[in-house]
Amino acid sequence: MEFIIKQEALKNELGFVQGIVERKNTIPVLANILIESVGENTIRMTGTDLDVTIRCEVEADIKTGGAICVSARKLFDVVRLLSDAPVRFRREDNDWVKVECGKYSSRLAGVPRETFPEVPGFKSAPLSLPSELFRNFIKHTQFAITQEQSRFTLSGAKFMVGADGARMVTTDGHRLAFIEQANFENPPAEAIDVLIPRKTLVEVIKLAENHEGDVKFGEDANHIYFEVGSRLLVSRKLTGQFPNYEMVMPKNNDKTAGFDAAEFNNALRRVALMADDRTKAVKLEFKTGVIQIGANTAEEGEALEEVATDYAGEDVAIGFNSQYLQDFFGVTREGRVAFEFKDGNAQAQLVPVTEDSAYDYKYVVMPMRL
User: Fold this and answer.
1) Is residue 181 part of a domain?
2) What is the CA angle 230-235-237, rounded to 5?
3) End-to-end CA separation in angstroms for the chain
4) What are the tens digits of pLDDT across the range 289-333?
5) pLDDT, the chain, mean
6) Using the 8-state DSSP alphabet, how is residue 254 labeled?
7) Which of 370, 368, 332, 334 is nearest to 350 (CA)?
8) What's this model's pTM, rounded to 2 decimal places?
9) Nearest Cα to 17, choosing from 62, 75, 63, 56?
10) 3-state DSSP: the chain helix, strand, coil percent, rounded to 5?
11) Tally of domains in the chain
């Protein structure tokens, strides 16, 4: 195999593919990517960890068709440091690959094409959402996915699309993020209800970051497919029963405190510096006109700051994990927020107060014992 490709185009696509490849794995060939010719002027790059597979296609001047299989990390490290000039690849004996760019020349050890695992075949992607909407869905929910590997069904996002709209839900058992767009101009002909793994969400948002069109997607019995331009991502679906999230979302929170998101977040970050490193606990005291945010540790000290609010009810004190709150304000940086609660023992709900938002966003967080 021999081909010539632009350095910038190659670097961009390798950036996506090598992100899938695990640096440490028990199957050595998975540290490699497969590069093969498709037609007369296209090469296809594929990387996989057997759970998630990404395939990118890019234009190239193909002198001789074929396939090469080389280390993803080493190739990416080499290509990103090359000058902005055409890069020539040539497969040599024993699967070695020669790389030339300007005055630079190197040889990379490769592996036989036959050793690279078979990847799932591409199925149709009949559904689509605008890239911006899809990015917002993921950004507003992915931080609430559990970090505990044992909680398998919580290690991804529940993603549903149907005639009544699209929604994504995540939870780790202590907090829950919910986002929904209820109305479509052209409702999809098919419905989908899947659990998408965390790693898949991370990679999809990379693919969609600078994409102006739609993200297309579909599923089969075991996989979900995402098509973003000329790039395809195939992921195994999580199996199991996701919790009944509608039961978790509070129905009888009768108290509401509205405040400025940026002001509250800045105060929270300052006060949280004095929170216990293990519990990250802060105390919110809701009083008429103000919310007092406080934290203290016997070893390091204490902090207290007030934030203006339109709350006018009875005094209520609630403890929270400060990191859980900061995660919400990491994606809700501006505007007004409604903090809905019942008392110091029931789950609270944070909702951005916007009139022109295309979607409905809610964040439920359990309190901590003070």
Assistant:
1) yes
2) 145
3) 67
4) 999 999 999 888 999 999 999 999 999 999 999 999 999 999 999
5) 93
6) -
7) 332
8) 0.91
9) 56
10) 25, 40, 35
11) 3
